[in-house]
Amino acid sequence: MSNVNDRIDAGTRISGLTVGDLKKELEIWLDDMVIAMNGLTFYRFKQRDDKLLQMEFNQVVYLDDLGIVRIQHVD
């Protein structure tokens, strides 16, 4: 991916890409192609701040205290 932006927000490291970067990455693909999320189920986009858009899934993915990736399904 082209521009990955890192910022510190309330003591938590947030990594992401801009909406523009995502649009540019997707522009070469056909509109009817399905995007696989490796087992995650897309839920919605939610604006969290003036310049922060969060992609939400029906699962919560996080690093535990040992740095192990954990996934919990949200009902």
TL;DR?
By secondary structure, this protein is mainly beta. It has 1 helix and 6 strands. Strand 5 and strand 6 form a beta hairpin.
| Rounded average pLDDT | 83
* Class derived from helix and strand content: mainly beta
Count helical runs. 1
Order of neighbouring strands in the sheet with most strands: 1-2
How does the major sheet shape up? 2 strands, antiparallel
Number of DSSP E strands: 6
Plain-language structure description:
This protein is mainly beta. The protein has one domain. Strand 3 (42-49) and strand 4 (52-57) form a beta hairpin. The model is unreliable at 1-11 (pLDDT under 50). It has one helix spanning 19-26, and strands at 4-9, 12-17, 42-49, 52-57, 59-63, 69-73. The protein has one helix and six strands; from the N terminus they run ββαββββ.
Element layout with pairings:
Elements: E1 4-9, E2 12-17, H1 19-26, E3 42-49, E4 52-57, E5 59-63, E6 69-73
Antiparallel strand pairs: 1-2, 3-4, 5-6
